[in-house]
Structures are given as C-alpha cells and as structure tokens.
Specification:
The chain is α+β, with helices and mostly antiparallel strands and 167 residues long. The protein is 19% helix and 32% strand. The chain has two domains: 54 residues, no CATH class; 102 residues, Rieske Iron-sulfur Protein. The chain contains two helices and ten strands. Strand 5 and strand 6 form a beta hairpin. It starts with 11 loop residues before the first helix and ends with a strand.
Length: 167
C-alpha cells in the first residue's frame, strides 16, 4: 500500500489528477464559447424547421355541407348541426329575416357547449360565465380569451350551406 502514498502528505492519485477543486467552479472561455455556439446552432435549426413547415403548410379545405333551409328556423331561434366532422358541433342562429350566423359550439376556454340567449342576444357558456357576441363571436365577458370560430355560410337558392371555418 506504500506505492499509493508518497513521502508527502498528499496521495499519488491527487498529484496525477489534473483538475483542482478550486478550478471546478469556473467555466473556461472555451466551454462558454462551445455552449453558445451549440445553443445558437440548435435555435437556428429550430427556426429553419419552422420556416420549412410554414412554406409547405396548406390550409385545410373544408367540405360544403347543407345546414338548413332558409325558412326552416324562425327569427331568434337556433339549429344545432355538426361541421366539418360529426365530432365538431356548431350552432346556427337566425338573427334577422335574411340573416343567419353560425359558430362552433365549443367554448374557447374549456370546450363547454355554448348556447344562444335570445333575451341578451349573445352566446353564453354556462360553465364559467363566458359570453360571446352574436355579431362576430368576439368575447364579451368571462375567462375565454379567444373568439368563437365562425362557420362561413352561403345561401344557394333556399339552402344554407356551410363552406369554411374562420378562426
């Protein structure tokens, strides 16, 4: 065991180990530069990936679907339907004689179903007292921070057709 100890009070392995305890706390310029270069390279590659994805992004094409007939719903009444898939519930409101508006029925806060209140002429979410404008779907009050997605409608003859979703 004498071969591990020299005549000095320090063990041999401490003499041969090049890193000193006091030096461990400090970062060298080379280490800092390496960290900054690698971090910048990672951020550059990430931004490049986002750019490439946005260049090749194509907006979804929604199907055209008949929603209702023009005289089917009385003024101030609603009709519930699904668009663009069976899992996406929507609400159609006849606000005037020749005016219909339609929105996603899913609240933008926590996805509760919204309903139309004819007395206050707004869409209401009963879960957390969120209120939306019937004119444009914007938030009037409550925790929702985003407006309701609007279903774009077209009149073709006596049919009301859903053609697109505007978020």
């Amino acid at each position: 065991m004498n071969w591990l100890w020299r005549s000095s009070s320090e063990p041999l392995w401490k003499e041969e180990f090049s890193v000193r305890t006091a030096d461990e706390r400090y970062v060298t310029r080379r280490q800092l530069t390496k960290f900054l270069v690698l971090t910048s390279l990672g951020m550059f590659v990430g931004n490049l990936w986002i750019l490439v994805k946005s260049l090749f992004y194509k907006a979804p094409i929604y199907p055209q679907q008949s929603v209702a007939r023009v005289g089917e719903i009385p003024v101030g009444s609603v009709k519930l339907f699904t668009y663009p898939t069976k899992d996406d519930h929507c609400i159609l409101v006849r606000t005037a004689e020749n005016e219909h508006v339609s929105y996603s029925q899913k609240c933008t806060h926590l996805s509760c179903a919204v309903y139309y209140s004819q007395e206050s002429n707004r869409l209401e979410c009963p879960c957390h007292k969120g209120f939306f404008s019937i004119a444009d779907g914007s938030v009037l009050q409550g925790p929702p921070s985003r407006p309701l997605p609007r279903i774009v409608l077209e009149k073709r003859g006596d049919e009301i057709i859903a053609v697109d979703i505007k978020v």
